[in-house]
Amino acid sequence: MRSLPRAAAVSSAVALAASLAACAAGSGGSGQGSGPAAAPARDAEFSLTVWSNYSGREQDEVTKALESFKEKFPNAVIEHQGSQDDDKITAGIRGGNPPDVALSFTTDNIGQFCSSGAFQPLKPYLDRDGVDLGQIPDAVRSYTEYKGNRCAMPMLSDVYGLYYNKELLAAAGITAPPRTTSELLDFAKRTTRRAADGSLEVVGFLPSMPFYANRPQIWAPHFGAEWETADGRSGLATPEWAAMLEFQKRLVDFYGHDALERFRAGLGQEYSADHAFHRQKIAMMVDGEYRTAFLADQAPEVEFGTAPFPVPDDRPDLYGTGFTTGTIMGIPKGAGNPGAAWELIKHLALDTDTVVELANGIKNIPSTKAALADPGLEVDENFRTFVDLATSGKLRGNPVTPIGDAHIKAVGDFATAWQAGQVPDVLAGLREVDRRVDEQIAKSGK
């Protein structure tokens, strides 16, 4: 799974907000609103169309997993179309030509998918087949449903932690990764290098938001920051959110905002071989487990380690906390063969051999407890960090609302302004963000 680059994620959220109401008005497939559609007979001949946003090597691995479904239904024909993002899925639903199964990278949109009816409810299928959702970790379950409406199942997950360049840390006399934010700040300063003219050549830790994996939902768990109040309102104006933003600002001020922006402008794209960590332009960063595969493929010369992300000095209990997200699978409204689509989703989500083989193929974290413990899962020292985080019981999933990722974007935009010195009072600014988010949710009618 790949988190969408910010521009694409925002575009997707805007398109969804404008069109999912229209999806709900479209024609539905059999099995929607009248109980679960029947499963096909084992020897039945049928075809399924699957849309995903995978491409290249990862698309090939997912296609292999789809083909393993034929062990249960040998006469099934599965067409896997890659490079299909949420905008294309939504357009297919609106146009009455959706796939049978839709795979989405954007768990931010689960609230919209479920509340609008764009993805069909799966509870009738789960109840009929006696599926025990307890085999899925709690945090993963949290980002595949909205207010009790489960309209998706997980297909692997991503877990985020700290990456550090061993050589750059060693050159600064550092022998172990930071565990606290004060250590992270110190190590970042010690591993930063400037040219004779003062420009930045190597940055110890790049705090710019939103850039690479520096996104509010990924940072928040490490500071104990919650998204909502007890009564369900936006809850950003808290000491925890303020502490997170103030820590980032200390780093920005150390580099100098303008100097940091000039440095950042010259860095490679997040999923390219020119990524700054690959080029040893940054010494430490937050990222997902999938980066281990990118580094092995694109920058095998980089000596790196992984660890849980540092936490505030006064909150050692948070160490080992992490953020998780993942690929989600749903049956779109109007799908032609929902009964067979459910069987395929169930296979990809819960068949241990399939989950383990796919996790090994694209280096994602398995999304079931059985697969996480399976001896066939390939786990090296750096990947072990993320498996341990996934089994810690301390992961946090994506904040789910009916406005997609608009609330996340609001925090990202605020953080950008704050880091640039455009916000005089962080808590007052967060209260204004709370007001706007609550207003958007109220207007959504959900």
TrEMBL record:
<dbReference type="GO" id="GO:0030313">
    <property type="term" value="C:cell envelope"/>
</dbReference>
<comment type="similarity">
    <text>Belongs to the bacterial solute-binding protein 1 family.</text>
</comment>
<keyword id="KW-0732">Signal</keyword>
<feature type="signal peptide">
    <location>
        <begin position="1"/>
        <end position="24"/>
    </location>
</feature>
<dbReference type="Pfam" id="PF13416">
    <property type="entry name" value="SBP_bac_8"/>
</dbReference>
<dbReference type="InterPro" id="IPR050490">
    <property type="entry name" value="Bact_solute-bd_prot1"/>
</dbReference>
<comment type="function">
    <text>Part of a binding-protein-dependent transport system for a sugar.</text>
</comment>
<keyword id="KW-0813">Transport</keyword>
<protein>
    <recommendedName>
        <fullName>Probable sugar-binding periplasmic protein</fullName>
    </recommendedName>
</protein>
<dbReference type="InterPro" id="IPR006059">
    <property type="entry name" value="SBP"/>
</dbReference>
